[in-house]
Amino acid sequence: MELELSHYQTIIQDLLLEHAKTRPAYGDIEVDVSFDTERHHYQIWHTGWLQERWVHHCPMHFTIRNNKIWLLANSTEHDLAQDLVDKGVPKQDIVLGFHPSYMRELSDYAVG
Protein backbone atom coordinates (compact mmCIF):
# COMPACT_ATOMS: atom_id res chain seq x y z
CA MET A 1 0.00 0.00 0.00
CA GLU A 2 2.77 2.48 0.92
CA LEU A 3 4.56 1.82 -2.37
CA GLU A 4 1.34 2.37 -4.32
CA LEU A 5 0.63 5.58 -2.37
CA SER A 6 4.07 7.05 -3.08
CA HIS A 7 3.84 5.90 -6.71
CA TYR A 8 0.45 7.60 -7.15
CA GLN A 9 1.73 10.74 -5.41
CA THR A 10 4.61 10.93 -7.87
CA ILE A 11 2.34 10.39 -10.88
CA ILE A 12 -0.06 13.14 -9.77
CA GLN A 13 2.73 15.58 -8.93
CA ASP A 14 4.45 15.00 -12.28
CA LEU A 15 1.14 15.45 -14.12
CA LEU A 16 0.37 18.73 -12.34
CA LEU A 17 3.87 20.09 -12.82
CA GLU A 18 3.56 19.29 -16.51
CA HIS A 19 0.22 21.13 -16.78
CA ALA A 20 1.46 24.05 -14.64
CA LYS A 21 3.93 24.99 -17.38
CA THR A 22 1.03 26.37 -19.41
CA ARG A 23 -0.27 29.77 -18.38
CA PRO A 24 -3.77 30.95 -19.24
CA ALA A 25 -3.90 32.72 -22.61
CA TYR A 26 -5.59 35.83 -21.18
CA GLY A 27 -4.89 38.07 -18.22
CA ASP A 28 -1.98 38.45 -15.85
CA ILE A 29 -2.46 35.05 -14.20
CA GLU A 30 0.07 33.12 -12.15
CA VAL A 31 -0.01 29.33 -12.04
CA ASP A 32 0.86 27.68 -8.72
CA VAL A 33 0.99 24.05 -7.70
CA SER A 34 0.15 22.79 -4.20
CA PHE A 35 1.08 19.36 -2.86
CA ASP A 36 -0.21 18.31 0.56
CA THR A 37 1.39 14.88 0.84
CA GLU A 38 0.25 14.44 4.44
CA ARG A 39 -3.46 14.87 3.65
CA HIS A 40 -3.09 13.75 0.02
CA HIS A 41 -4.39 16.79 -1.85
CA TYR A 42 -2.74 17.99 -5.08
CA GLN A 43 -3.89 21.12 -6.91
CA ILE A 44 -3.13 23.75 -9.49
CA TRP A 45 -4.12 27.32 -8.61
CA HIS A 46 -4.63 30.29 -10.89
CA THR A 47 -4.37 33.71 -9.26
CA GLY A 48 -4.08 37.15 -10.77
CA TRP A 49 -6.01 39.67 -12.80
CA LEU A 50 -8.17 39.32 -15.88
CA GLN A 51 -8.67 42.93 -16.91
CA GLU A 52 -10.07 44.43 -13.69
CA ARG A 53 -11.38 41.18 -12.23
CA TRP A 54 -9.48 39.21 -9.58
CA VAL A 55 -9.01 35.54 -10.46
CA HIS A 56 -8.62 32.85 -7.80
CA HIS A 57 -9.40 29.48 -9.33
CA CYS A 58 -8.50 25.82 -8.85
CA PRO A 59 -8.71 24.21 -12.31
CA MET A 60 -7.27 20.83 -11.21
CA HIS A 61 -7.62 19.02 -7.89
CA PHE A 62 -6.72 15.44 -7.05
CA THR A 63 -6.79 13.54 -3.78
CA ILE A 64 -5.89 9.97 -2.83
CA ARG A 65 -8.43 8.04 -0.75
CA ASN A 66 -8.49 4.32 -0.04
CA ASN A 67 -5.72 3.62 -2.57
CA LYS A 68 -7.65 5.36 -5.36
CA ILE A 69 -6.94 8.64 -7.12
CA TRP A 70 -9.97 10.91 -6.95
CA LEU A 71 -10.23 13.62 -9.60
CA LEU A 72 -12.21 16.32 -7.75
CA ALA A 73 -11.93 19.21 -10.20
CA ASN A 74 -11.06 19.55 -13.86
CA SER A 75 -12.09 22.79 -15.51
CA THR A 76 -9.72 22.30 -18.44
CA GLU A 77 -10.08 20.79 -21.88
CA HIS A 78 -7.65 18.00 -20.92
CA ASP A 79 -8.87 14.50 -20.11
CA LEU A 80 -6.94 14.21 -16.85
CA ALA A 81 -8.29 10.73 -16.11
CA GLN A 82 -6.91 9.53 -19.45
CA ASP A 83 -3.61 11.25 -18.62
CA LEU A 84 -3.48 9.09 -15.46
CA VAL A 85 -4.23 5.95 -17.47
CA ASP A 86 -1.48 6.90 -19.93
CA LYS A 87 0.90 7.11 -16.96
CA GLY A 88 0.01 3.57 -15.87
CA VAL A 89 -2.83 4.05 -13.37
CA PRO A 90 -5.52 1.37 -13.83
CA LYS A 91 -9.02 2.74 -14.50
CA GLN A 92 -10.33 0.86 -11.44
CA ASP A 93 -8.04 3.09 -9.30
CA ILE A 94 -9.41 6.38 -10.70
CA VAL A 95 -12.61 7.97 -9.37
CA LEU A 96 -14.28 10.87 -11.18
CA GLY A 97 -15.26 12.56 -7.93
CA PHE A 98 -16.93 15.52 -9.60
CA HIS A 99 -19.68 13.15 -10.85
CA PRO A 100 -22.37 11.71 -8.55
CA SER A 101 -21.98 7.99 -7.83
CA TYR A 102 -24.89 6.99 -10.10
CA MET A 103 -23.05 8.60 -13.04
CA ARG A 104 -19.74 7.04 -12.03
CA GLU A 105 -21.37 3.61 -12.32
CA LEU A 106 -21.82 4.30 -16.04
CA SER A 107 -18.14 5.06 -16.65
CA ASP A 108 -15.14 2.78 -17.16
CA TYR A 109 -13.65 4.22 -13.96
CA ALA A 110 -14.10 3.33 -10.29
CA VAL A 111 -17.27 4.29 -8.45
CA GLY A 112 -15.48 5.16 -5.23
From TrEMBL:
InterPro entries: XisI, XisI-like_sf
Any Pfam family the entry gives: XisI
Record's signal peptide: none
Name used for this protein in its record: XisI protein
Organism: Adonisia turfae CCMR0082
Lineage, top ranks: Bacteria, Bacillati, Cyanobacteriota, Adonisia, Adonisia turfae
